[in-house]
Design brief:
alpha/beta; Ubiquitin-like (UB roll); 5-stranded mixed β-sheet; 7 helices; 24% helix
């Protein structure tokens, strides 16, 4: 008797962006998974390399399922990144919708992206000394969305919202995040400090005269000062570059 025929298995199929986590040869195929006992579908999904925060909907044998749903032999599992795009009657909703006002927290590899999200007005925490534990605990405690280059970081059980950044060039990263998370309607440019994430407040020339170059104090009337670190912003030559980033994020 062929012992392999007696091994209990389930078939798993990933769709859309979730196939980014799979080897090229397995992206458009059912994956046969050996079952030990009756595992939760979440554990099987992450065992195949796909972090749960990127999953929006699961179907088991054509029926909607939760992460805690248990698998039995011969189950067929379909996993979607966005139920609205799945072409199925699945409603999704494995986690509550993310509201951008909750803010973001980024890993140590995404410093430039952090500054640019702040430029667009998003509450964005970043430090090049953050540990994985700090990121996970802060995100859980404050309800923040994690952006990371580390897939394993998103597999911590307490992570609710998060995305593995596919792009490696910062401008493309910005376009990726803005587009995938539908952030355009939430833009509030020039309201946060790019250096520390503090809110900006209007300041007069007299208020900031000793904190800006003399020529800037002569040429400009409009200034903004960070309410946390005191950094001063004005419409200098760097403004064109900042505006081009906003235009890029706006148009995609």
């Amino acid at each position: 008797m062929d012992a392999a025929k007696n091994i209990p298995t389930a078939d798993v199929r990933f769709f859309g962006e979730l196939t980014d986590f799979l080897p090229p040869g397995k992206r458009d195929a059912d994956l046969s998974v050996e079952l030990v006992g009756s595992p939760a579908v979440k554990d099987v999904i992450e065992g195949l390399g796909v972090p749960h925060p990127e999953v929006d909907a699961i179907m088991i044998n054509g029926m909607e399922a939760a992460f805690r749903s248990r698998l039995v032999p011969r189950d067929r599992v379909e996993v979607f990144p966005d139920a609205r795009d799945s072409g199925t009657p699945c409603q999704g909703g494995l986690k509550p919708p993310f509201e951008p006002a909750r803010g973001f927290i980024l890993d140590v590899h995404l410093g430039k992206l952090a500054r640019w999200l702040r430029l667009l007005g998003f509450d964005t925490l970043y430090s090049n000394s953050y540990s994985d534990h700090e990121i996970v605990e802060t995100a859980a405690g404050q309800g923040r969305f994690i952006l990371t280059c580390d897939i394993r970081l998103l597999m911590h059980g307490s992570v609710r919202w998060g995305r593995w950044i596919r792009e490696r060039q910062p401008r493309r990263q910005l376009s990726e995040v803005v587009g995938r998370l539908s952030l355009r309607r939430h833009f509030a440019p020039f309201t946060r400090c790019m250096r520390c994430n503090g809110l900006l407040a209007p300041a007069s020339r007299n208020d900031v005269r000793d904190r800006v170059p003399p020529l800037a104090a002569q040429l400009y009337d409009l200034f903004a000062r960070c309410t946390v670190c005191g950094k001063v912003y004005w419409e200098g030559s760097h403004m064109g570059g900042m505006q081009s980033l906003i235009d890029l994020a706006t148009t995609g």
